[in-house]
Amino acid sequence: MKEYSKTFGIMTMIYLGMLLIDTLFTLFSTPANYSVIVTSLLGIQIKNTITTHNITTTFSPTWILVISYFVTLILGFAINKGIEKVKNKQ
Questions:
Q1: How far out from the chain centre does Cα 38 lie?
Q2: So where does this one cross the membrane (predicted)?
Q3: Domain ranges of the chain
Q4: For the chain, how far is it from start to end, CA to CA, in angstroms?
Q5: How far apart are CA 10 and CA 18, in angstroms?
Q6: CA nearest 6: which of 79, 68, 56?
Q7: CA neighbor of 42 nearest in space, from 59, 66, 9
Q8: Residue pair 40/22 in contact by the 8 Å Cβ criterion
Q9: Count of C-beta atoms within a 10 Å radius of residue 14
Q10: Which of 3, 30, 23, 14 is nearest to 75 (CA)?
Q11: Please, which pLDDT band fits residue 65 given cuts at 50, 70 and 90?
Q12: Which helix (H) or strand (E) holds 74?
């Protein structure tokens, strides 16, 4: 059980790092001159509203975020299981 919690923690931190990079890349690659709604690759929706007096940026999660997180966890556990098999084989 301890090894699963370690894998879970590591994969969560990796996913958060990927999410941060993806969100920042999407945020700064949006056009700055007009209002736009963009969804990042990992599922963060960025709504940028520009009026004459202010600029508002709103971040919201989508279902893609949840699905990509679970896919990342499943891949992490599969990689961990493969590494364990190789170690036990030797």
A1: 15
A2: 7-28, 62-80
A3: 2-80
A4: 23
A5: 12
A6: 79
A7: 66
A8: yes
A9: 13
A10: 14
A11: very high
A12: helix 63-89
User: What pLDDT band is residue 59 in, cutting at 50, 70 and 90?
Assistant: very high
pLDDT at 67 over 90: yes
Two tokens at 85?
């098999």
**Given this model, what pLDDT does residue 79 score?**
92
Residue 36 token pair: 């736009």
Q: Which residue has the tokens 């990796």?
A: 14
Residues 6+ apart with CB under 8 A from 73: 8, 11, 12, 15
